[in-house]
Each structure stands twice: as C-alpha cells, then as structure tokens.
Amino acid sequence: MLRLVLAAAVALAVNAPAVAQEAAWPTRAITIVGGFPGGAGTDIYTRKLGQELTAAWNVPIVSDNRTGAGGNVASDIVARAAPDGYTFLFATAGTHAINAALYKSLPFDVQRDFTHIALLGDVPNVLLVNTDKYPDVKSCQDLMAIARKNPGKLNYASTGNGASGHLAGALFGNMGKLEIVHVPYRGQGPAMTALLAGEVDFMFNQSAPSIAAVKGGKVRALGVTVSKPIPALPGVPTIADGCGLAGYESSTWYGLMGPAKLPEAIQKKMSAEVVRIIQTPEFKSWLTDTQGIAPAADPSPEAFKKVHEADVKRWAEVVKLSGATVD
User: Is 185 in the same domain as 95?
Assistant: First the structure.
C-alpha cells in the first residue's frame, strides 16, 4: 500500500509542472508556420490574426513562411515540432487535402500528425486576365471563345503543380471542353508577375491577391470559383454562371493546426480565442470585404476535422481528373 501511495505521489510531482505550464500558457512567443511566400493570402491572414492574438494575450505571434513542395516543408516542420503550444501551422486544403493525393509519398500523415484548432474560412479562386493583353475580353465567355478558336495555344499560370489554381484551371478546361496549357510557377508572386507581363493568358488566383490586382487596374476578374458571388468583387459572376458551366465549384479552406498530441487544455484555449476573434463583426468584415473569404459557418475543431476528412476524398478525385502528380 505504501508503494502505491509513493508511486502516486511521484506521478503527481512529475505531472504538476506540465499541468502548471498548460494553465499558464502562453508565456512566450508563438510561431505560426506558413507554407507560402510573403504577400500570399495565407501570409496576409496569419499577420492579421497574429495582431489580434497579440492584443489578447500580450505575447508576440511570429509569422514564419517556410516555402517549398507545395506547403509540405512547412507542414513537416510543424508535424515534427514539440506539442507545447508554441508552434502552429497555417494549413490549407492544398497542404492537407490536395497534397495527400498529389504527392506519391509524404513525410507526415495529413490527418494523424496534426491537431485541429479552427477552420478559418472558405477561400475562392478568381479567374483573371491581363487587360493590356486582352482588352476586348470582358467576360468568361469571351475567353472561352478565344480558347476554342485556338486549341492548345492558350496557357494559364498557377502557384505550382497541383495547387488549387492549377486544379481550378484543370476543372475549367475539362468542363468547358477546352484545350489549355498549364504553366506552374513557384508561388503567387512569380505567377502574378507572369500574368502582368503577358507571359501567360490567364490565371486562377486566390481571392486576396486577386482583389488587390483588380483594384490596381492591370487585370480583370471574369469569375469566382465558388457557388455565389463575393462582396469584395461586386459584379463578378461565378464561373458556373459567367462561363456557362453549371455545377462548377472549386473553393478551398484555410485552417489552423498544431502538432499531434497537443495538450487538450492548450488546444481548447487556442481554439476558443481564435474562434472568438474570427467571429467578431470587425474581423468578419475584413474577411469578406477585403479578402473575399467566407467565414466558416462552424469554425470549431470538431467541424474542421469533418471538413478536412471529407476534402481529402473530394480532392483526390479532382487530382485524378487533372492527371497531376509529384514524386
């Protein structure tokens, strides 16, 4: 009996510091790792969310962009990180659903090696053309007419092989029966630069950088890849309506994840604060009016996990349709 009492006492003594640390968390800087370059939609969102978290907890939130392999470099860093609540991942449907089908092998499991924190919103792509190169293309139907007259000659940029913009274009070509050529670039910046320089004919780009480019007047938005128009681009139809492709939809999501085995107390505290922030009227307005992102109807970890599981299956079908693969 005495041995059992002593063992219990030792266990309590060992676990006490960890419990105390979880209760006090956070006490120092938190890093949110992103897989895409500065200026990408993920980076813009991370910095905005970080400002709000810093204001709430008075600790620095560091945005650490680790590019490479379609976001896999960043994902691997977080999968291997200590589950202490100081390293998180800004995940996307690309990094955690598309890549599972696109890459023949990954150094991590997109589901088992992560802890779901919050679903941050639904993200459309926008079909863009260069207004200087195509001054007379005012609608998606105009662009499709040119593509049909010139099979195999029109090309479109994406932020990388298998990225959401690539798959949106592949679906566009398949449903529209168009012969178009995909040209992958390393990130949003180089792809948009190519579009602005006239090196490519069009592009499906994420909403935040697309909105900024449209406002700059150098590109024209012809359609959005979601089921209804977005407030940030008034007058721009959906691809389904504007292109005459009934049923077309190709949106992705943003989400916050931690490494696997993150203590439940930290998961709940981080989730509760992030959900509180993104559901404020001010943050929702910022999302919809400036980023073109639809706030998640249910951002909870439980709902996020269900969306994630369903999307792994859904995007596997789209990747198969595109024929894309990465060794």
Answer: no
Q: Helix, strand or coil for residue 69? A: helix
Residue 101 φ then ψ, to 5°: -95, -30
The DSSP result for 308-326, as a single string, is HHHHHHHHHHHHHHHT--B
Tell which residue, 164, 152, 160, has the closest CA to residue 124: 164
The domain that holds 199 is classified in CATH as: 3.40.190.10
Per-residue pLDDT of the chain (327 residues; tens, 9 = 90+): 545 555 555 555 555 455 656 778 999 999 999 998 888 889 999 999 999 999 999 999 999 999 888 899 999 999 999 999 999 999 999 999 999 999 989 999 999 999 999 999 999 999 999 999 999 999 999 999 999 999 999 999 998 888 889 999 999 999 999 999 999 998 888 999 999 999 999 999 989 889 989 998 989 999 999 999 999 999 999 999 999 999 999 989 999 999 999 999 999 999 999 999 999 999 999 999 999 999 999 999 999 999 999 999 988 988 887 777 775
Last residue of a domain, one of 242, 277, 292: 242
Is residue 63 a contact partner of residue 43, using CB atoms and an 8 Å limit?
A: yes
Measured CA to CA, the distance from residue 18 to residue 20 in angstroms comes to: 5
Number of domains in the chain: 2
Tell me the β-bridge partners of 114: 259
Domain region containing 80: 28-123+252-322
| End-to-end Cα separation, the chain, in angstroms | 59
Q: Report how far Cα 266 is from the mean position of its chain's Cα atoms.
A: 23
The contacts of residue 14 (CB under 8 Å, 6+ apart) are none
CB 66 within 8 A of CB 35: yes
Residue 198 structure tokens: 């006239």
Indicate if 129 and 115 belong to the same structural domain. Answer: no
Q: What gap in Å lies between CA 203 and CA 60, rounded to an integer?
A: 36
Last-in-domain residue among 200, 216, 242: 242
**Residues 117 and 262 reside in one and the same domain:** yes
